[in-house]
Write a structure and sequence with these properties.
Layout: E1 2-5, E2 19-20, E3 27-29, H1 37-45, E4 50-53, H2 69-87, H3 94-113, H4 130-148, H5 153-165, H6 175-178, H7 186-192, H8 195-208, H9 212-220, H10 241-256, H11 267-277, H12 284-293, E5 302-305, E6 310-315, E7 325-330, E8 336-343, E9 351-355, H13 362-375
Antiparallel strand pairs: 1-4, 2-3, 5-6, 5-9, 6-7, 7-8
Helix pairs in contact: 2-3, 3-4, 3-5, 4-5, 4-10, 4-12, 5-9, 8-9, 9-10, 11-12
Bound molecules: fe (ii) ion (FE2).
Length: about 375
Protein backbone atom coordinates (compact mmCIF):
# COMPACT_ATOMS: atom_id res chain seq x y z
CA UNK A 1 0.00 0.00 0.00
CA UNK A 2 1.02 3.59 -0.36
CA UNK A 3 -0.20 7.05 0.56
CA UNK A 4 -1.70 9.14 -2.21
CA UNK A 5 -3.21 12.54 -2.52
CA UNK A 6 -6.98 12.54 -3.00
CA UNK A 7 -7.60 13.74 -6.57
CA UNK A 8 -9.01 12.40 -9.84
CA UNK A 9 -5.93 10.21 -10.28
CA UNK A 10 -7.10 7.84 -7.54
CA UNK A 11 -10.30 6.83 -9.34
CA UNK A 12 -10.21 3.06 -9.92
CA UNK A 13 -7.66 2.39 -7.18
CA UNK A 14 -8.55 0.34 -4.08
CA UNK A 15 -8.58 1.79 -0.59
CA UNK A 16 -6.05 -0.09 1.57
CA UNK A 17 -7.27 1.20 4.95
CA UNK A 18 -10.64 2.29 6.28
CA UNK A 19 -10.84 6.08 6.37
CA UNK A 20 -12.65 7.59 9.35
CA UNK A 21 -14.07 11.05 9.91
CA UNK A 22 -12.12 13.49 12.02
CA UNK A 23 -13.38 12.22 15.34
CA UNK A 24 -12.41 8.69 14.30
CA UNK A 25 -15.91 7.32 14.86
CA UNK A 26 -17.64 7.15 11.48
CA UNK A 27 -16.09 5.24 8.58
CA UNK A 28 -16.14 7.30 5.38
CA UNK A 29 -14.44 4.83 3.06
CA UNK A 30 -13.99 1.17 3.83
CA UNK A 31 -10.86 -0.84 3.18
CA UNK A 32 -11.01 -2.64 -0.17
CA UNK A 33 -13.46 -0.19 -1.78
CA UNK A 34 -12.72 0.70 -5.39
CA UNK A 35 -12.74 4.47 -5.66
CA UNK A 36 -15.46 6.01 -7.83
CA UNK A 37 -15.30 9.56 -9.21
CA UNK A 38 -17.99 10.81 -6.80
CA UNK A 39 -15.91 9.69 -3.79
CA UNK A 40 -13.05 12.06 -4.61
CA UNK A 41 -15.15 15.18 -4.08
CA UNK A 42 -16.89 13.63 -1.07
CA UNK A 43 -13.57 12.91 0.67
CA UNK A 44 -12.17 16.33 -0.10
CA UNK A 45 -15.30 18.06 1.15
CA UNK A 46 -14.75 16.30 4.46
CA UNK A 47 -11.21 17.61 4.58
CA UNK A 48 -9.47 14.36 3.69
CA UNK A 49 -6.60 14.94 1.33
CA UNK A 50 -4.62 11.72 1.52
CA UNK A 51 -5.51 8.05 1.81
CA UNK A 52 -3.81 4.66 1.66
CA UNK A 53 -4.37 2.71 -1.56
CA UNK A 54 -3.21 -0.69 -2.71
CA UNK A 55 -0.33 -0.23 -5.12
CA UNK A 56 -1.08 -1.71 -8.55
CA UNK A 57 2.44 -3.05 -9.01
CA UNK A 58 3.06 -4.04 -5.38
CA UNK A 59 -0.33 -5.28 -4.11
CA UNK A 60 1.22 -7.30 -1.29
CA UNK A 61 3.32 -4.53 0.21
CA UNK A 62 2.15 -3.82 3.76
CA UNK A 63 3.33 -0.68 5.49
CA UNK A 64 3.91 -1.00 9.22
CA UNK A 65 3.19 2.16 11.14
CA UNK A 66 4.85 2.95 14.48
CA UNK A 67 1.63 3.78 16.29
CA UNK A 68 -1.58 1.76 16.01
CA UNK A 69 -4.46 3.34 14.08
CA UNK A 70 -6.72 3.12 17.17
CA UNK A 71 -4.19 5.04 19.25
CA UNK A 72 -3.99 7.77 16.62
CA UNK A 73 -7.81 7.91 16.42
CA UNK A 74 -8.19 8.36 20.18
CA UNK A 75 -5.42 10.97 20.27
CA UNK A 76 -7.06 12.90 17.44
CA UNK A 77 -10.37 12.85 19.28
CA UNK A 78 -8.85 14.35 22.44
CA UNK A 79 -6.90 16.96 20.52
CA UNK A 80 -9.90 17.93 18.39
CA UNK A 81 -11.88 18.47 21.57
CA UNK A 82 -9.18 20.75 23.00
CA UNK A 83 -8.71 22.67 19.73
CA UNK A 84 -12.45 23.31 19.52
CA UNK A 85 -12.47 24.89 22.98
CA UNK A 86 -9.31 26.81 22.16
CA UNK A 87 -10.98 28.37 19.11
CA UNK A 88 -13.36 30.10 21.52
CA UNK A 89 -10.37 31.07 23.68
CA UNK A 90 -11.50 28.48 26.19
CA UNK A 91 -8.53 26.86 28.00
CA UNK A 92 -8.56 23.06 28.22
CA UNK A 93 -10.19 21.77 31.39
CA UNK A 94 -8.30 19.45 33.75
CA UNK A 95 -10.45 16.60 32.47
CA UNK A 96 -9.51 17.34 28.84
CA UNK A 97 -5.85 17.64 29.82
CA UNK A 98 -5.96 14.27 31.59
CA UNK A 99 -7.70 12.57 28.66
CA UNK A 100 -5.05 13.92 26.30
CA UNK A 101 -2.24 12.76 28.56
CA UNK A 102 -3.82 9.28 28.69
CA UNK A 103 -3.96 9.17 24.88
CA UNK A 104 -0.32 10.21 24.77
CA UNK A 105 0.55 7.41 27.18
CA UNK A 106 -0.89 4.91 24.68
CA UNK A 107 1.15 6.52 21.91
CA UNK A 108 4.29 6.25 24.04
CA UNK A 109 3.54 2.58 24.81
CA UNK A 110 3.12 1.82 21.09
CA UNK A 111 6.38 3.57 20.28
CA UNK A 112 8.27 1.84 23.08
CA UNK A 113 7.02 -1.54 21.89
CA UNK A 114 8.07 -0.90 18.33
CA UNK A 115 11.61 -2.13 17.83
CA UNK A 116 12.20 -0.88 14.28
CA UNK A 117 15.52 0.88 14.13
CA UNK A 118 14.13 3.35 11.61
CA UNK A 119 10.51 4.37 12.08
CA UNK A 120 8.29 4.56 9.05
CA UNK A 121 6.31 7.76 9.54
CA UNK A 122 4.29 8.58 6.42
CA UNK A 123 4.45 12.24 5.60
CA UNK A 124 1.30 13.00 3.68
CA UNK A 125 -1.36 15.07 5.36
CA UNK A 126 -4.67 13.34 5.91
CA UNK A 127 -6.64 16.46 6.76
CA UNK A 128 -6.70 19.93 5.32
CA UNK A 129 -6.24 21.37 8.79
CA UNK A 130 -2.49 21.76 8.70
CA UNK A 131 -2.00 22.75 12.34
CA UNK A 132 -4.03 19.80 13.63
CA UNK A 133 -2.26 17.19 11.54
CA UNK A 134 1.16 18.72 12.08
CA UNK A 135 0.56 18.62 15.85
CA UNK A 136 -0.11 14.89 15.85
CA UNK A 137 2.93 14.28 13.68
CA UNK A 138 5.25 16.42 15.82
CA UNK A 139 4.12 14.55 18.94
CA UNK A 140 4.97 11.25 17.31
CA UNK A 141 8.36 12.46 16.09
CA UNK A 142 9.22 14.04 19.46
CA UNK A 143 8.42 10.84 21.36
CA UNK A 144 10.56 8.87 18.91
CA UNK A 145 13.45 11.24 19.56
CA UNK A 146 12.91 11.06 23.32
CA UNK A 147 12.91 7.28 23.15
CA UNK A 148 16.27 7.26 21.40
CA UNK A 149 17.61 9.76 23.94
CA UNK A 150 16.63 7.14 26.56
CA UNK A 151 13.94 9.11 28.38
CA UNK A 152 11.67 7.34 30.83
CA UNK A 153 8.08 6.51 29.96
CA UNK A 154 6.77 9.33 32.17
CA UNK A 155 9.13 11.84 30.58
CA UNK A 156 7.97 10.71 27.15
CA UNK A 157 4.32 11.24 28.07
CA UNK A 158 5.07 14.78 29.25
CA UNK A 159 7.20 15.47 26.18
CA UNK A 160 4.50 14.12 23.83
CA UNK A 161 1.75 16.08 25.54
CA UNK A 162 3.71 19.32 25.17
CA UNK A 163 4.56 18.43 21.58
CA UNK A 164 0.98 17.79 20.53
CA UNK A 165 -0.09 21.12 22.01
CA UNK A 166 2.91 23.12 20.76
CA UNK A 167 1.00 25.08 18.12
CA UNK A 168 -2.30 25.42 19.98
CA UNK A 169 -1.85 29.20 19.93
CA UNK A 170 -2.29 29.08 16.15
CA UNK A 171 -5.92 28.12 16.63
CA UNK A 172 -6.65 31.79 17.27
CA UNK A 173 -4.59 33.07 14.30
CA UNK A 174 -6.86 33.83 11.31
CA UNK A 175 -6.91 31.02 8.70
CA UNK A 176 -6.29 33.56 5.89
CA UNK A 177 -2.88 34.26 7.39
CA UNK A 178 -2.00 30.64 8.18
CA UNK A 179 -2.95 29.44 4.70
CA UNK A 180 -1.70 32.43 2.75
CA UNK A 181 0.20 31.06 -0.24
CA UNK A 182 2.33 34.20 -0.66
CA UNK A 183 4.86 35.39 1.91
CA UNK A 184 3.52 37.23 4.91
CA UNK A 185 3.63 40.98 5.47
CA UNK A 186 5.53 42.23 8.54
CA UNK A 187 2.24 42.75 10.40
CA UNK A 188 0.99 39.28 9.53
CA UNK A 189 4.28 37.74 10.59
CA UNK A 190 4.03 39.56 13.91
CA UNK A 191 0.60 38.00 14.45
CA UNK A 192 1.95 34.52 13.71
CA UNK A 193 4.87 35.10 16.06
CA UNK A 194 2.46 35.62 18.93
CA UNK A 195 1.28 32.01 18.83
CA UNK A 196 3.72 30.59 21.42
CA UNK A 197 2.59 33.11 24.00
CA UNK A 198 -1.09 32.84 23.08
CA UNK A 199 -0.77 29.07 23.39
CA UNK A 200 0.94 29.32 26.76
CA UNK A 201 -1.78 31.66 28.04
CA UNK A 202 -4.34 29.06 27.00
CA UNK A 203 -2.80 25.91 28.40
CA UNK A 204 -0.54 26.65 31.31
CA UNK A 205 -3.34 26.90 33.84
CA UNK A 206 -5.02 23.64 32.80
CA UNK A 207 -1.71 21.77 32.73
CA UNK A 208 0.03 23.52 35.62
CA UNK A 209 -0.98 20.94 38.20
CA UNK A 210 -0.60 17.84 36.11
CA UNK A 211 2.28 18.52 33.73
CA UNK A 212 3.90 21.96 34.01
CA UNK A 213 6.78 20.94 31.78
CA UNK A 214 4.41 20.23 28.88
CA UNK A 215 3.20 23.81 28.72
CA UNK A 216 6.77 25.18 28.67
CA UNK A 217 7.13 23.52 25.24
CA UNK A 218 4.20 25.57 23.94
CA UNK A 219 5.97 28.77 24.95
CA UNK A 220 9.50 27.83 23.89
CA UNK A 221 9.25 25.78 20.68
CA UNK A 222 10.41 28.67 18.45
CA UNK A 223 13.41 29.55 20.59
CA UNK A 224 16.73 28.71 18.93
CA UNK A 225 20.04 27.79 20.58
CA UNK A 226 21.83 30.88 19.21
CA UNK A 227 19.21 33.26 20.60
CA UNK A 228 17.68 33.98 17.18
CA UNK A 229 14.29 32.50 18.09
CA UNK A 230 11.20 33.98 19.71
CA UNK A 231 9.42 35.12 21.86
CA UNK A 232 12.18 35.53 24.48
CA UNK A 233 15.44 35.03 22.52
CA UNK A 234 16.52 32.35 24.96
CA UNK A 235 19.87 30.65 24.36
CA UNK A 236 21.33 27.17 24.78
CA UNK A 237 20.44 25.57 28.11
CA UNK A 238 17.96 28.34 28.90
CA UNK A 239 15.71 26.41 26.53
CA UNK A 240 14.18 23.41 28.25
CA UNK A 241 15.19 20.02 26.81
CA UNK A 242 11.60 19.12 25.80
CA UNK A 243 11.33 22.41 23.89
CA UNK A 244 14.60 21.71 22.09
CA UNK A 245 13.35 18.31 20.96
CA UNK A 246 10.00 19.68 19.79
CA UNK A 247 11.76 22.51 17.91
CA UNK A 248 13.76 19.92 15.92
CA UNK A 249 10.68 17.74 15.26
CA UNK A 250 8.68 20.82 14.23
CA UNK A 251 11.26 21.89 11.63
CA UNK A 252 11.73 18.34 10.37
CA UNK A 253 8.01 17.79 9.83
CA UNK A 254 7.54 21.19 8.21
CA UNK A 255 10.28 20.71 5.64
CA UNK A 256 9.66 17.01 5.06
CA UNK A 257 5.99 17.44 4.23
CA UNK A 258 4.60 19.94 1.83
CA UNK A 259 1.43 21.66 2.95
CA UNK A 260 0.04 20.82 -0.43
CA UNK A 261 0.59 17.16 0.23
CA UNK A 262 3.95 16.58 -1.44
CA UNK A 263 7.47 17.04 -0.30
CA UNK A 264 8.47 20.66 -0.39
CA UNK A 265 12.10 19.80 -0.86
CA UNK A 266 14.00 16.97 -2.49
CA UNK A 267 15.02 14.41 0.18
CA UNK A 268 18.66 15.46 -0.10
CA UNK A 269 17.66 19.05 0.68
CA UNK A 270 15.71 17.97 3.79
CA UNK A 271 18.82 16.22 5.06
CA UNK A 272 21.00 19.22 4.24
CA UNK A 273 18.75 21.74 6.01
CA UNK A 274 18.54 19.60 9.14
CA UNK A 275 22.31 19.12 9.20
CA UNK A 276 22.93 22.85 8.79
CA UNK A 277 20.51 23.81 11.56
CA UNK A 278 21.86 21.20 13.99
CA UNK A 279 24.23 22.93 16.39
CA UNK A 280 23.74 26.63 15.75
CA UNK A 281 19.96 26.59 16.04
CA UNK A 282 18.62 23.12 16.75
CA UNK A 283 19.72 20.59 19.34
CA UNK A 284 22.29 18.40 17.61
CA UNK A 285 21.41 15.20 19.46
CA UNK A 286 17.69 15.64 18.71
CA UNK A 287 18.45 16.19 15.02
CA UNK A 288 20.77 13.20 14.95
CA UNK A 289 18.10 10.99 16.53
CA UNK A 290 15.57 12.17 13.94
CA UNK A 291 17.84 11.57 10.99
CA UNK A 292 18.93 8.18 12.27
CA UNK A 293 15.59 6.87 13.38
CA UNK A 294 12.88 8.42 11.21
CA UNK A 295 12.59 7.70 7.51
CA UNK A 296 12.91 10.82 5.34
CA UNK A 297 11.50 8.68 2.55
CA UNK A 298 9.08 6.14 4.03
CA UNK A 299 8.36 2.65 2.70
CA UNK A 300 5.75 2.73 -0.05
CA UNK A 301 7.00 5.88 -1.79
CA UNK A 302 7.56 5.90 -5.55
CA UNK A 303 11.05 7.21 -6.17
CA UNK A 304 13.38 8.20 -8.99
CA UNK A 305 17.03 7.38 -8.32
CA UNK A 306 19.98 9.56 -9.23
CA UNK A 307 20.66 7.37 -12.30
CA UNK A 308 17.05 7.77 -13.47
CA UNK A 309 15.74 4.33 -12.47
CA UNK A 310 12.19 4.26 -11.14
CA UNK A 311 10.95 2.09 -8.29
CA UNK A 312 9.23 1.73 -4.93
CA UNK A 313 10.85 2.01 -1.50
CA UNK A 314 10.43 -1.42 0.10
CA UNK A 315 12.77 -1.19 3.08
CA UNK A 316 14.86 1.24 5.12
CA UNK A 317 18.55 1.38 5.96
CA UNK A 318 19.46 2.74 9.39
CA UNK A 319 21.92 5.60 9.08
CA UNK A 320 21.42 5.90 5.30
CA UNK A 321 18.30 8.03 4.95
CA UNK A 322 18.71 8.63 1.21
CA UNK A 323 19.72 5.06 0.43
CA UNK A 324 16.85 2.71 1.28
CA UNK A 325 15.99 -0.62 -0.33
CA UNK A 326 14.23 0.02 -3.62
CA UNK A 327 12.53 -2.40 -5.99
CA UNK A 328 13.15 -0.96 -9.42
CA UNK A 329 10.61 -1.49 -12.23
CA UNK A 330 11.56 0.95 -15.03
CA UNK A 331 14.56 2.66 -16.53
CA UNK A 332 15.25 6.38 -16.92
CA UNK A 333 12.91 6.55 -19.94
CA UNK A 334 10.13 4.85 -17.97
CA UNK A 335 10.51 1.66 -20.00
CA UNK A 336 9.86 -1.49 -17.99
CA UNK A 337 12.83 -3.56 -16.92
CA UNK A 338 12.77 -6.78 -14.95
CA UNK A 339 11.95 -6.20 -11.31
CA UNK A 340 15.20 -5.71 -9.39
CA UNK A 341 15.66 -5.31 -5.70
CA UNK A 342 18.40 -2.82 -5.02
CA UNK A 343 20.00 -2.07 -1.69
CA UNK A 344 21.34 1.44 -2.27
CA UNK A 345 23.57 1.33 0.79
CA UNK A 346 27.18 1.23 -0.23
CA UNK A 347 26.38 2.21 -3.84
CA UNK A 348 26.88 5.67 -5.37
CA UNK A 349 23.11 5.85 -5.94
CA UNK A 350 20.54 7.64 -3.82
CA UNK A 351 16.94 8.77 -4.08
CA UNK A 352 16.65 11.90 -6.16
CA UNK A 353 12.92 12.55 -6.24
CA UNK A 354 9.72 11.34 -4.61
CA UNK A 355 6.81 11.00 -7.06
CA UNK A 356 3.11 11.25 -6.40
CA UNK A 357 2.16 8.34 -8.66
CA UNK A 358 3.55 6.06 -11.34
CA UNK A 359 4.03 7.92 -14.66
CA UNK A 360 0.98 7.63 -16.99
CA UNK A 361 0.69 4.21 -18.65
CA UNK A 362 3.56 2.69 -16.72
CA UNK A 363 1.48 0.24 -14.69
CA UNK A 364 0.03 -1.27 -17.88
CA UNK A 365 3.43 -1.38 -19.59
CA UNK A 366 5.03 -3.14 -16.62
CA UNK A 367 2.21 -5.69 -16.53
CA UNK A 368 2.51 -6.37 -20.27
CA UNK A 369 6.24 -6.75 -19.85
CA UNK A 370 5.80 -9.22 -17.01
CA UNK A 371 3.16 -11.20 -18.99
CA UNK A 372 5.49 -11.38 -21.95
CA UNK A 373 8.33 -12.58 -19.78
CA UNK A 374 6.27 -15.26 -18.08
CA UNK A 375 5.10 -16.57 -21.44
CA UNK A 376 8.55 -16.68 -23.03
FE1 LIG B 1 4.83 26.96 16.17
Amino acid sequence: MRRVQVDEEIVGKFSAKTVFNRTGRTPLLRRGTQIRPSMVGALRRRGIHAIWVTDELFPDLEVQTVVRDETIAVTRRCLDDIFRSAKDSEPPSQAQALRLATALRSMVEDILQNDDVVANVAHLRTWDNYTFEHSVQVALLSVLVGKHLLMTEDQLVRLGTGAILHDIGKVTVPQEILQKPASLTTEEFEIVRQHPRLGWDLVHEGFQNIMPTSSIVVLQHHERLDGSGYPSHLKGDEIYVFSRIVAAADVFDAIRAERNYRMRYAPRKVLQIMQEEAGPKLDASAVQALLEHVAIIPVGEIVRLTNGLLGLVTGLNPGNPLQPLVTVVADDRDEPIGRQELDLRGTPLHVDQVLNDWPPGLVERVRDFQDMRSRS
